[in-house]
Specification:
This is Por secretion system C-terminal sorting domain-containing protein. By secondary structure, the protein is α+β, with helices and mostly antiparallel strands. 25% of the residues lie in helices and 27% in strands.
């Protein structure tokens, strides 16, 4: 019976969250609902609603810190079979119990900071994965984060920030998150996380910069040493199209809010540099500020100047800001999967006669794709907006080897750039003219 499954899986959740992880949960609701136990109500919820944790905002418990505490009860759906659920059936039940029980623990044992709801949702969504690793319902949320890394984390809804919880667990074990919740009794979310990381001989600034690096190594760029499931994650969105260096220098200027990250790609001949730029202003973060701070990133092949970092290939870079301690800048040079002969391009080499076409993969679902073709010398030979085609089980755009004047291009190595619905991809292929 369904109720037996509820009993079985809430026991599993309790064992992991309380007995193994060490979150506190000394519950007694004074007999509300017929007993002192925690109450779970199985109902036919509105379509798409997994569950909810309900509490009386006007009747808090005696405080054990600054934050107000509450007794709650849980409502869950009676089937999860509607098509509106990303995850359905028993798997949906499992992650809902983990998520909502997380909220029950937060409200009872640690207290509520209304301005930090993102941290509550982040933690509860992380618990879904931590308790039931095989379900992966959180895959439905994370595209929102990877499309919006330039938004300060405290302005996200929190579900999409589940990757922050996963990052912290894989870096430090669950204990760093438990300690943060112990601090939340008296401190806001980011301040609590800073105190927790300090106890692990680290800091919020340092780990946010590292977190931003991990977020680059997902999807096609996933590699060992970063997210264990990173190959299944979306890829971050670049702030601009790749910056093609037609002279010996280039730069970008923008502004960033606290605890946000921006990604830029620069192409110089056969080299690519990805600049990962993070603002880690603690004071602004603790204040949940909307302020933005101006930065300039400069890349050059010129002679050495003070403050520039050499990338070892003749390129030097510098992040130009007045308060460098409040920034993080990592530079990724020639990531292998981003700039090698692309095995997904077909055929490669491409024998061009002006009629046959090369197929270049794009993300499915995009109504229109921008395709640009460059020579190795970074001269633009072709640019067009195209409708994706479906071939060989995947979505592609095609090119017949002719430039925008209709002329067949010369033999050589070419660089392609595609932008499909905000997802960007760059690669190389060999064209041999027949």
């Amino acid at each position: 019976m369904y109720v037996d499954s509820v009993s079985k899986y809430i026991d599993s959740v309790f064992n992991v969250v309380v007995n193994f992880f060490g979150f506190e949960f000394d519950f007694n609701d004074g007999g509300i609902g017929g007993g002192v136990e925690y109450d779970i109500y199985i109902q036919n919820l509105q379509e798409g609603l997994y569950g909810e944790t309900v509490f009386d905002y006007l009747n808090p418990l005696p405080r054990n810190g600054v934050a107000k505490r509450y007794i709650s009860f849980m409502r869950i759906d009676n089937s999860y079979y509607e098509a509106s659920y990303y995850t359905r059936g028993i798997n949906a039940l499992k992650v809902t119990l983990a998520h909502e029980f997380g909220h029950a623990v937060q409200l009872l044992s640690y207290g509520l900071w209304e301005e930090d709801i993102w941290f509550y949702e982040m933690t509860s969504t992380w618990l879904e994965e931590a308790v039931f690793d095989d379900v992966n319902d959180y895959y439905a949320y994370i595209p929102r984060f990877f499309r919006a890394t330039s938004t300060p984390i405290y302005f996200h809804d929190g579900y999409d920030l589940v990757v922050l919880g996963i990052f912290l667990q894989e870096r430090f074990t669950h204990e760093v998150i438990v300690k943060a919740w112990e601090n939340i009794r008296n401190h806001s979310a980011l301040a609590s996380l800073e105190l927790s990381l300090n106890s692990f001989n680290s800091s919020l600034k340092r780990e946010f910069v590292e977190f931003s690096l991990w977020n680059y190594y997902t999807g096609r760029r996933a590699r060992v040493g970063y997210y264990k499931e990173g190959a299944n994650y979306p890829e971050v969105r670049f702030e601009t199209q790749p910056v093609i260096m037609t002279s010996n220098e280039a730069s970008v200027k923008n502004s960033a809010g606290a605890f946000s990250t921006q990604y830029y790609m620069f192409i110089w001949r056969n080299d690519t540099v990805v600049a990962v730029i993070s603002n880690v202003n603690l004071n602004s973060g603790f204040a949940r500020s909307e302020d933005e701070f101006i930065f300039q990133y400069h890349i050059t092949t010129g002679t050495y100047s003070e403050g520039y970092t050499s990338l070892g290939n003749g390129l030097r870079v510098k992040l130009i800001v007045p308060d460098f301690d409040n920034w993080g800048n990592l530079n990724i040079l020639n990531l292998q999967v981003a700039f090698v002969k692309d095995r997904n391009v077909f055929p490669n080499p491409f024998y061009a006669d002006g009629i046959e076409k090369i197929l270049i993969p794009v993300d499915s679902g995009a109504d229109e794709v921008e395709l640009k073709i460059f020579t190795v010398g970074l001269d633009l030979v072709y640019s067009e907006k195209l409708k994706p085609e479906f071939n060989f089980g995947n979505y592609f755009v095609s090119w017949n080897g002719r430039n925008n004047l209709g002329q067949l291009v010369k033999s050589g190595v070419y660089i392609y750039f595609v932008n499909s619905g905000g997802s960007e991809k760059t690669g190389k292929f060999v064209l041999i003219r027949k």
